[in-house]
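Chapter summary example: a protein plus 2-acetamido-2-deoxy-beta-D-glucopyranose.
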Amino acid sequence: MRFLSSVLLACTALLSSVEAQNGYKGFNYGAFFNNQQAKRRNDFAYEFNAAKQLPGTNGGFTSARLYTMIQWGTQNTVIEAIQAAIDTKTTLLLGMWCSSGQAAFDNEIAALKAAIKQYGKAFTDLVVGISVGSEDLYRITPTSIQNGGGPGAQPQELLHYIQQTRDAIRGTALQGKPIGHVDTWTAYVNGSNSAVISALDFLGVDAYPYFQTTMENSIGNANRTFYDALQATINVSQGKPVWVTETGWPVTGPTQNQAVASAENARVYWEDVACSLMAKNVNFYYYMLQEAQYGNPSPDFGIKGPGDLMQIPTRFDVRC
Ligand SMILES: *[C@@H]1O[C@H](CO)[C@@H](O)[C@H](O)[C@H]1NC(C)=O
Ligand SMILES: *[C@@H]1O[C@H](CO)[C@@H](O)[C@H](O)[C@H]1NC(C)=O
Ligand SMILES: *[C@@H]1O[C@H](CO)[C@@H](O)[C@H](O)[C@H]1NC(C)=O
């Protein structure tokens, strides 16, 4: 008994930052289709319902992570995913896009405030967290710039945006909802970004062993590689909860070092990583339900391939 409880204590300390979470399970949802057409209320609702109806998951995928509050193609109209979430009782990890400068961020804030006003409690009750930014710190690194990764944001800018978000929700029904940021584990372990961590309520980490090409990244090592990345993030999290906001393994696409994209390997990754995260009750957003409705995205991380989401089968068994 004594032995058991000390083992238990050791484990608790190691994974303390991922324990005592709510076990939200969801997918990441972009604001537009791969032809740049905006997703509308019914499109989002269709995706959210398809996520709930995944065979073998017991209606488990009931949360949605968004990247922006703004309806695609508008200045600051509330994204229609909010109405779709209300329609389908889907909880929301909101996203504020932070890599287009202050004027664009003002529009994110305007849309956030408008959503609170427009939808009230029906909306605010569904919100499980707000992520200020997505991989902005990764995109300012030499690695991302070399890969043509697009603009990011400096830690100092993110600090302003986090404060502006806190100010915007003060005195509203969203006050008290956790405010976080999403980035790669490599951005978190970079000491130049520690002030951002200090300003957060939780860290959302994105980790893809498939892309970790400087390591031995075969599927056989993927569980270990993933959990090392998670642990490295926990180690610098200043005791704050670490949510897994993106991870996955592609079903098709190029081989990256030792990482081979295939349905069998995606199934192994699901069983090892996704199932163990769910068993640990970690807040978890898989990448992704469907990469694109049509075309041949490469790599393609979709549990479902191109086609009608409700009609086509999953490409691998998602039971745990
Ligand atoms: C570390 O973080 C700083 C600030 O975000 C960034 O400018 C720098 O490029 C990062 N270093 C590496 C090696 O990624
Ligand atoms: C996390 O910190 C522990 C304790 O300092 C250390 O033993 C371990 O190697 C670290 N893990 C990673 C992945 O950095
Ligand atoms: C993957 O690693 C985690 C953390 O070490 C562990 O809990 C889980 O059982 C592992 N899964 C497999 C299939 O080895």
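Key point: The pocket of 2-acetamido-2-deoxy-beta-D-glucopyranose (ligand 3) is lined by residues 223, 227, 272, 276 (CB under 6 Å).
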